[in-house]
């Protein structure tokens, strides 16, 4: 178990380093090949020569990429010092540097926005798990029935609808026409009731898409599991059907569902860009989209790393849960 | 982005069992393609999906002809049809009229029908070509990993795992944002289209690669491969003539199911403003423009949304049908 954990954590570290390298490549090497000067890229096209040079010096863009990379890693692990015009500012670990645009420190921006995105993803996950598992199991148990056909048609329609379209429709109907819920985001600390009212539509919109995916997956897995020998054994020894399904079949059905849940929740940390844009929720996704269009490298690096870490941690938790849920899985 | 994952179990059952084929051949003399086609012909839902897909491809190809038939062009402005006070179209339902069957856009007054028709070009082009890129890379690398094994397999498998856990949307957006305006003799939208096709395809290949690797891994141990080898067949011959024909079915299934995912990604990118450049019409960018008008001109949001929905649903229905038809374990 311990060696397993250590091996996994090592893989996590490698993955994160690769991601940092990839981001550096995108923003330093590709512009070089295609003949764009990173300094002009960060300042904007209309900037005069002087401000370009100022940026180049401030961001140490003349240093080789490897040196910049080293400085970044150093900042992450032990913190780093910035010198500009005689003043030295210390940025303590974990230091993601300062935004190229707003000159704010990155770390507080990340810790500000992470809870917003996390509450969006987790709230939606609760709803989509409930919907997906219930619909999937019922459809599998009544395979070929009218319910099954209707549910699966609905699920197929669900996975074919983009989040920003269902989001806009629900905004137009429930927030504008019927005026049932709020159409804007309120921080939880300001007013929990208003926060809830503003989060309901984003949650349901996201859950509609993912619930449809999970229903399809649950149904397919359940059908496979119900054909297994140990289910026949359970029935043969006289167990009641609810016990066979709830205790024996559900455990194996949960394995692929959990795998997907780990990936999805992790990916939503940075991939909720669409939902956050549609509903104007000030989370990580909105921050990174703005950072990308601004070419604000430190902020992009920060969000990408947080996202990747979230994906990896979620996957790790899921892998550990396998051992608890599915008796066939032994970690080693 | 995660959608193809859910089809995994299903696609794995779509393995072509060579032994089974031969048995069927001996008795009835029908090829796999023939059997699949006969099954597909009986699947009405899949046929409807296939017909819509075919129509969409025709619409995309003959977009200029359709525009000429309606007497409109996608970028012609009709500001006389816009209410100057609210910037929304005059008349009910977003300005639908005999001249403008689906109405006109707010502010500019451009004809929506022709823009939808031209938008189909972007969706279909990116959807198909990026899936094609993914299939080429996935098949080559998956076959190499599965057939040669050893360190090559370890390397390719690690890369695939890593790419699947990557925050893909973030990387796609970042990559597109650093691309110059001129590349390989293309400009503006041309560059964006090329980059979208390559990048979406690049992040899609591991899905195909994993399936192909798994197939090759099990197929290369079969007796018929051993027989070919003992008769003195070279690696190239075995891979090209003995293995690849057996990979056609799972690859076809995966490619059909990958196209709608790619269409959704293109729409999402255009929605976020990193897809095609204005004034080129794309369903995603139309929806993004519609965000500011969802209260005053809901038709402008509904039309491109429904276009995306119908397209993706049709591809999904057709893809599911193809999968069932190619599945030798299927009972239909």
Automatic annotation (TrEMBL), chain A:
<dbReference type="Pfam" id="PF00528">
    <property type="entry name" value="BPD_transp_1"/>
</dbReference>
<feature type="transmembrane region" description="Helical">
    <location>
        <begin position="257"/>
        <end position="279"/>
    </location>
</feature>
<dbReference type="Pfam" id="PF19300">
    <property type="entry name" value="BPD_transp_1_N"/>
</dbReference>
<feature type="transmembrane region" description="Helical">
    <location>
        <begin position="116"/>
        <end position="138"/>
    </location>
</feature>
<feature type="transmembrane region" description="Helical">
    <location>
        <begin position="299"/>
        <end position="325"/>
    </location>
</feature>
<feature type="transmembrane region" description="Helical">
    <location>
        <begin position="195"/>
        <end position="215"/>
    </location>
</feature>
<protein>
    <submittedName>
        <fullName>ABC transporter permease</fullName>
    </submittedName>
</protein>
<dbReference type="InterPro" id="IPR035906">
    <property type="entry name" value="MetI-like_sf"/>
</dbReference>
<dbReference type="InterPro" id="IPR000515">
    <property type="entry name" value="MetI-like"/>
</dbReference>
<keyword id="KW-1003">Cell membrane</keyword>
<keyword id="KW-0812">Transmembrane</keyword>
<keyword id="KW-0472">Membrane</keyword>
<feature type="transmembrane region" description="Helical">
    <location>
        <begin position="9"/>
        <end position="30"/>
    </location>
</feature>
<dbReference type="InterPro" id="IPR045621">
    <property type="entry name" value="BPD_transp_1_N"/>
</dbReference>
<feature type="domain" description="ABC transmembrane type-1">
    <location>
        <begin position="114"/>
        <end position="322"/>
    </location>
</feature>
<keyword id="KW-1133">Transmembrane helix</keyword>
<feature type="transmembrane region" description="Helical">
    <location>
        <begin position="150"/>
        <end position="175"/>
    </location>
</feature>
<comment type="similarity">
    <text>Belongs to the binding-protein-dependent transport system permease family.</text>
</comment>
<keyword id="KW-0813">Transport</keyword>
From TrEMBL, chain B:
<dbReference type="Pfam" id="PF00528">
    <property type="entry name" value="BPD_transp_1"/>
</dbReference>
<protein>
    <submittedName>
        <fullName>ABC transporter permease</fullName>
    </submittedName>
</protein>
<feature type="transmembrane region" description="Helical">
    <location>
        <begin position="159"/>
        <end position="179"/>
    </location>
</feature>
<dbReference type="InterPro" id="IPR000515">
    <property type="entry name" value="MetI-like"/>
</dbReference>
<feature type="transmembrane region" description="Helical">
    <location>
        <begin position="45"/>
        <end position="69"/>
    </location>
</feature>
<dbReference type="InterPro" id="IPR050366">
    <property type="entry name" value="BP-dependent_transpt_permease"/>
</dbReference>
<keyword id="KW-0813">Transport</keyword>
<keyword id="KW-1133">Transmembrane helix</keyword>
<feature type="domain" description="ABC transmembrane type-1">
    <location>
        <begin position="120"/>
        <end position="319"/>
    </location>
</feature>
<dbReference type="InterPro" id="IPR035906">
    <property type="entry name" value="MetI-like_sf"/>
</dbReference>
<keyword id="KW-1003">Cell membrane</keyword>
<feature type="transmembrane region" description="Helical">
    <location>
        <begin position="124"/>
        <end position="147"/>
    </location>
</feature>
<feature type="transmembrane region" description="Helical">
    <location>
        <begin position="243"/>
        <end position="263"/>
    </location>
</feature>
<feature type="transmembrane region" description="Helical">
    <location>
        <begin position="299"/>
        <end position="319"/>
    </location>
</feature>
<comment type="similarity">
    <text>Belongs to the binding-protein-dependent transport system permease family.</text>
</comment>
<keyword id="KW-0472">Membrane</keyword>
<dbReference type="InterPro" id="IPR025966">
    <property type="entry name" value="OppC_N"/>
</dbReference>
<keyword id="KW-0812">Transmembrane</keyword>
<dbReference type="Pfam" id="PF12911">
    <property type="entry name" value="OppC_N"/>
</dbReference>
<feature type="transmembrane region" description="Helical">
    <location>
        <begin position="191"/>
        <end position="212"/>
    </location>
</feature>
